[in-house]
Amino acid sequence: MAKQYDLLFRLLLLGDSGVGKTCMLRRFAEGEFDPSHISTIGVDFKMKTVQIDGLRVRVQIWDTAGQERYQTITKQYYRRAQGIVFVYDITDLPSFKHIAKWAGDVDEFAPEDVQTILVGNKADEELRRQVTTDQGKKLAETYGMEFFEASASTSTNISESFIRVTELVLQAQKRDMDNLFGSLDNNLDQAALQEEKSSQDNDAQRTCAC
Ligand SMILES: Nc1nc2c(ncn2[C@@H]2O[C@H](COP(=O)(O)OP(=O)(O)OP(=O)(O)O)[C@@H](O)[C@H]2O)c(=O)[nH]1
Fold this sequence. Notes:
210 residues; 6 helices; Small_GTPase_Rab; elongated; Rossmann fold; prenylation
């Protein structure tokens, strides 16, 4: 059977318990919103295929438990992540402050070239807001990340966030390939030059011998 996708990427959702990671993933993968909060135990994942630059990219998105007691398990998933979505809740200041802790863990356990974005979820809850959009933007800037305010409830910026981090992973992979082929081309050029030079040397030696 023909393969249903061209590329497979692994993404990870990180953030405090209750910020809405599972709801965001469910909204993106299944188009649904369930307001009940059943804390994720350890990790769970969902898949979705998206089209980017004419490629069918299958994303495997790992939803991690925000609760401290599962951190030993969840950290084992950082190593294989290519993209990470940091999530805080705009109505919950501590969840915003803890992004520094999540980012520190990523520095320690994820690959160096992992692509990251920052998302402030529950943007529909304007009246209960504790974190301004400006604060979100500034924090994202500090870490060199792109920033979105989103709502799993109204679906605002959910696809946009997941697609953007997938695009960043794709761009990073293309850069790696370009570098690889660039250095291969370079090596081949060097080898061709070397060969040409030694054949010229041989010609010169033959001319001398005559
Ligand atoms: N108003 C509003 N509520 C939301 C939104 N997203 C999630 N929630 C609510 O936030 C609560 C927690 O959502 P979850 O998705 O279970 O949170 P989580 O981050 O996965 O939590 P853990 O699995 O414990 O790490 C639920 O009661 C949701 O209804 C949103 O965009 N707007």
